[in-house]
Description:
The complex is a heterodimer of chains A (about 800) and B (about 110). With about 800 residues, chain A is mostly helical.
Amino acid sequence: MSLLHWAILSPFLLAVIIPVLYKLFRRVHTGWFVLALPVVLFSYFFLKIPAVRQGQEIKETLKWIPSLNINFTTIIDGLSLLFALLITGIGSLVVLYSIFYLSKKKEQLHNFYVYLLLFMGAMLGVVLSDNLIVLYMFWEFTSLSSFLLIGYWHNRERSRYGAQKSMLITVFGGLSMLGAIVMLYIMGGTFSIRGLIAQAGTIVDHPLFLAAMLLVLLGAFTKSAQFPFHIWLPDAMEAPTPVSAYLHSATMVKAGIYLVARLSPLFAQSGVWLWLVGGIGLLTLLWGSFNAIRQTDLKGILAYSTVSQLGLIMSLLGVGAAAVHYPQLGNENIYIAATMAAIFHLINHATFKGSLFMMVGIVDHETGTRDIRKLGGLMSFMPITFTIAVIGTFSMAGLPPFNGFLSKEMFLESMVSVLSLDLFNMSTWGSLFPVLAWIASVFTFVYSMMVVFKTFTGKYQPEKLPKKPHEAPFGMLLSPIILALLVILFGLFPNMLTETLIKPAAASVLGDVLPADYELHIAFWHGATPALFMTIGIIAVGLLLYVLWPKWKGLYKAFPEKLSFTNLYDHALPAMENGSFNLVKLFMTGFIRNYLVYIFIFFIGSLGFTIYLKNAFNYSTIDTAPIGFYEVVLAAVIAIGAVSILFVKSRLTSIIVLGSVGYTVSLFFVLFRAPDLALTQLVVETVSTALFLLCFYHLPKKFRKEERLKFRGTNLLISLGVGTVVTLIALSAHSTKLFDTISKYYLDTAYTEAGGKNVVNVTLVDYRGLDTMFEITVLGIAAIGIYSMIKLRLTKRGGKKANENK
Amino acid sequence: MEILMAFIIGILFTCATYLMLSKSILRIIIGTGLLSHGAHLLILTMGGLKRGAVPLLGEHAKSYVDPLPQALILTSIVISFGVTSYFLVLAYRAYQELGTDNMDLLRGSESNE
Lengths: 806, 113
């Protein structure tokens, strides 16, 4: 176990101790015990920056299941380090925030922090694992802990609904991903991501390549709430706000992005990858930003905004994948910049979205509502919160001097660069990229303005607020302030990130394509590029749309809620439940006749079809015994007897006819030289007939009403089918003798070895005595069963007792 | 002879199946009785018929019939007897407790679903 492994596992270990600490120290807020761990981990990862900057990879292996190639291998490279810093850094701030947000008295804090620590450890495991199976394990752990956190207030119906929805969707994607992992193992023979990437050139041509890619993308898209799997994210907002800030803006939803970035060197060779990642990302961006505007709940707006920003990052990764196809361009490769922009925006989004969620949490905490129709004019009551909101939303909208402006500029520039792509039919459809990106950016601007101005300016409506608003305590403000400061810091000095974090991360995503001397310089003024004019357009049109919002509100009526994917999900689930219920009800009728019909039809179908398919029917009269007069008479008797049972009205008669069939069988045994059988059959038949008659005699009178067996065509057809199949098999089996019987041995040795002359009896008790022993056991069990069935009357006695008690 | 027996066995199976698809428990049990007769005759027939003397070594015949199927059938007769008698008493108890012999009425009530 190396230090790195301890770092990943330490949250799990702390999660075990937390409930104990919670019970022991009831006076101290449990969050304080948790806080130290992410801070220590953050410092640990922070100290790795210099090494990673120089291109080192820190690799540690712990043997887990070596025989299956599954080892807990962890690697720190640029991308992993970036994510690890985000997870631990924002994790510390969220824990700090939650200490002031969650009440010590009202909440089950030990549950909350156990789930949160499980999540933190799982997320670290996802980003640091090199082994795909281990990655998958941690991946499902994030789904699980997210489920627990969303359903934290489990007595609320909406929480349970949101938790179930997110669980179903993310686990669906997770399982698809497992399928892809297995396929990748088949193709590459290893679970190691680096090992697979090293073989990228040969894997591309494998027939399973496309299927694996689609399944990986299904996993990544469901986790990162991409269109049309984004529907779980808005419902996950039922979680406590620190959870929304941590999981559903900064970390978990970026697991899908991490996966796409991590596997880019493997899949980017293919045009399908480029189109899917870029196209779906752009679609998500547009759809999320469009839907964010119609939300009235602040967290709802932020949820859709997260969806759209994740789409933005995803589309950048898609465009960035094009870099692989132009390795000759070197430093001039414009698609490398797209990858850099994706990584830069990933950092920026984590900072401003985290602060915005915390800001909304504060508003909710201090006013009692998150509905923008009830809020307004809070600026003078909550000046610090307002400042944080302004910084966050302006950065989200892409306004200078905040970091969102820079990454938005880079984003627009990358989208414009798609125009010069001459690969994969991009030249015809590629022009859609900048246009859609621009429209989505306008929507982003509009909802960003709504978040800040509808909450903090306008008319103050105290009568609608459950609480009297006032500024939050300083502890609660601390985390969003730190994040807002980072927003400004990264905005003013973006180049402190480029060399330390962005370039090493981009090196992991792009692999060899990135030239060692690639210069990335982010600056506010980079000349009059198309992107700048697009930004000016966004601000102008966005302002216009914001002012005219009541006028074009009606546009949303064109997209009614009924047509949404949430609605589809809500109807698909009950439909599936009802469908399977009805389907099962269709054949599980409870009537034994129906089940017998299924069994017999399957018997006829499978055996008849096999005979037909294998051409197995065989008929030969060569090896047959001669037909004698007595046999013909007996055969006629048995046939008439069997058929007449079907037609007799009286049950007594049918019992007697059955007895006659049995005696005829024993006569057959006489004719076919089986004296022991004939004896046994005679006795058994007598006793069974007596039993039948006994049973019949004891029947209550009212059931003795005689009825002829009702004729049913299907019954006749099925029974004829069974009889025919049995006859066919009997004929074929008789006519195909493959080898001689082994009975010669029994006949030869019965006297010499066993000392008996009756070979059948010698077989029963000497050669095959075990059969006989268990046959005796069967009789014993039957006798005990019959005895207990007659003697034990538990229900009746219990019933009487119950009656007596009354 | 074996060909004729194959058809007789077919008739036994047909009648047995037809009875088992009926509603009355007693008829179903009669059906199983016929079915076991059919099965026993099938085993005997497949072993070959009338290939010599009774398998008693005192007979001093040149050839005997195959003793192995006979041993198998003997076991089978006893077992089917045990099962049939158990089944009969079960049906008898069902009449007593539930007051019906109609299989269509002997299904779980709707409230169990």
